[in-house]
């Protein structure tokens, strides 16, 4: 395994990050603004800053085809940034929520996006041509608490949401005139707006940090604060799911996860490193970390002379310098995203976290 | 003057800015019924839990500590009232105290490796924290009444360090605490920090 590509962007937490389709532009949510970095020869250079929010930005997503950027923030607003020759032009979206927005993602069709919020609602936003603005429709029931995370089904109609009421849910976000009628599948046949296609929680019922559909869209994985991941295989409308597999781990909770094909999940979180899970309907297992421990250059390989040892003991009261974690990330990983892949298989993925680092890994 | 006072009193009584509007909204998350987060528990009566406790003590006396611990943890009375839960805590604490320190880790590893073992260890962690939290000494008061016979020794100064023994109660609860702490250390070694997190998120309280 080749070494990961590590970029220390700055020393602030990164709430969310997103790459453009050509991977030349990186959008990073930093405090109350979004910073755009351009790829230069051996790193990333700050190109532009999107200043429009006046509270912490919680989510950023770049639409792959149109290049539009959507951001959401604790100031209860979402902005769509339209690329133009003179820079990005923001448009305010009417979210109609009375609490902060927590998460935002474009649908794969890029005609709408979903914003999760502390107002116990998901705003599904789409562009209304005749009024020339972005409007939103709310999914409210049966959400009982803050929506922490969202994920789109490949058909752009189904939306998975995780919430602090410990439920991962699958909703229909079908909007007439915008979406094509989806084909019937494992999640249901008739899918008018706000249909609840599934509602899942695991035994210890921790709040949900992340949800994700498998590449085919026929399975849903979520990670909760009880250090578990749960994979659901549904079985059509109004039927109990074929299988619900839950893996409790010895680790700290996962904040984000991606699928690599239908039989592998990569998850990362409070342990500051990414872990691989493998399995199928019959069962899932944690197979290990994606990092090779004890990489050179972390100080443990250096042979200490006796003189050095006593000098260190005199200066610092200890012989080894253990202020660094053995992982690449030095703090919680918040976001993990597919960087490069095809047909559901991931070749490279990127992670950002509280330590202000962007790391591009080989899956 | 009086009008001003009236006005102030009225605005104090109707201090609408401080009204917690979330409490008035039935859909609000403050009115969220957390019992919907788990399946309904079957009720457990006091006699049931006492007879279960006897069976478990019998296993323990017979030297089968693993079955005793498993039995105690698999049958945690989630649906019982406080007295039932307290009784079962007593049973679990006795089992924990009856297992030698050298046997803890191999025992925990066997349970972790078995089917549903992670869940059993999560329950164990719940009992460890409950045992630590209960203020009354849960140790089966293995007090040694004879040991303090030296109280009779006359103290010439009249300043008796023995009388009263304010630390006596603390000593036995301290012993119980050290058992719980060493179990806690061993469980976290086997089941990782995940089991502590699960214990905190879980709505099924022991």
UniProtKB/TrEMBL annotation, chain A:
One of its GO terms (biological process) is Arp2/3 complex-mediated actin nucleation. This is Actin-related protein 2/3 complex subunit. SUPFAM superfamilies: WD40 repeat-like. GO terms for molecular function: actin filament binding; ubiquitin binding. InterPro entries: ARPC1, WD40/YVTN_repeat-like_dom_sf, WD40_repeat_dom_sf, WD40_rpt. Keywords: Actin-binding, Cytoplasm, Cytoskeleton, Repeat, WD repeat. It comes from the Eukaryota. It comes from Oidiodendron maius (strain Zn). SMART domains: WD40. Belongs to the WD repeat ARPC1 family. WD repeats lie at residues 50-82.
UniProtKB/TrEMBL annotation, chain B:
It comes from the Eukaryota. The keyword NAD does not apply. It is found in: Cytoplasm, Cytoskeleton. Residues 150-171 have a biased composition (Polar residues). Residues 135-171 are annotated as: Disordered. The keyword Transcription does not apply. One of its GO terms (cellular component) is Arp2/3 protein complex. One of its GO terms (biological process) is Arp2/3 complex-mediated actin nucleation. Keywords: Cytoplasm, Cytoskeleton. InterPro entries: ARPC5 (IPR006789), ARPC5_sf (IPR036743). PANTHER family: ARP2/3 COMPLEX 16 KD SUBUNIT P16-ARC. Belongs to the ARPC5 family. Functions as component of the Arp2/3 complex which is involved in regulation of actin polymerization and together with an activating nucleation-promoting factor (NPF) mediates the formation of branched actin networks. Arp2/3 complex plays a critical role in the control of cell morphogenesis via the modulation of cell polarity development. This is Actin-related protein 2/3 complex subunit 5. It comes from Oidiodendron maius (strain Zn).
